Amino acid sequence: MDMQGKIVRGDRILENSDLFEMLYDKYFDKIYKSTCLITLNDSIAEDAVQEAFISAFNNFEKLRDIKKFHAWVAVIASNKAIDMIRKNSRIYPSDQIDNLQEKYSFEDPLDLILDKENKLKIINALNKLNLKYRQVVILRYYYDLPFKDIGEVLGISA
């Protein structure tokens, strides 16, 4: 990234604000929803996703494959969310799950396959998992990432 707010990618120069707006609009909702599933707290999820996008753009040159941008930002967001939870050492009440369920419609794979009762059971089960395991489950089943890719981005063996 240069000082005039442009991202230099190979021989192309992309206006930072245009690229940011396009990618943010395209991916924010899904990344936000998956981060809500990790945190069970919508304000922490929103903060984490916003910080993830900022971090992604500050480190854009490190991304080797633009097709993986979505998963890359999702991993950054979930890591930031976990850091925020640990930093605040908060325990989130289970009624957060009900609030999330009412406030946001999860129209991704869960909505296509499962009814509301089953989604609630899945969200409750996710809530019982350790944050790192929850992160892996969401990356695998929500983003359909191969275990190898999950291991690489999280720095663990697959």
TrEMBL record:
RNA polymerase sigma-70 region domain location: 24-90
Keywords: Sigma factor, Transcription, Transcription regulation
UniProt KW Nucleotide-binding keyword: no
One MF term in the entry's GO annotations: sigma factor activity
Record keyword Transport present: no
Matches recorded under SUPFAM superfamilies: Sigma2 domain of RNA polymerase sigma factors, Sigma3 and sigma4 domains of RNA polymerase sigma factors
InterPro entries linked to this entry: RNA_pol_sigma-70-like (IPR039425), RNA_pol_sigma-70_dom (IPR014284), RNA_pol_sigma70_r2 (IPR007627), RNA_pol_sigma70_r4_t2 (IPR013249), RNA_pol_sigma_r2 (IPR013325), RNA_pol_sigma_r3/r4-like (IPR013324), WH-like_DNA-bd_sf (IPR036388)
Any matching Pfam family: Sigma70_r4_2
Example GO BP: DNA-templated transcription initiation
PANTHER family: RNA POLYMERASE ECF-TYPE SIGMA FACTO, RNA POLYMERASE SIGMA FACTOR
Entry-linked NCBIfam families: sigma70-ECF
Family: Belongs to the sigma-70 factor family. ECF subfamily.
Descriptive protein name: RNA polymerase sigma factor
Lineage of producing organism: Bacteria, Bacillati, Bacillota, Clostridia, Thermosediminibacterales
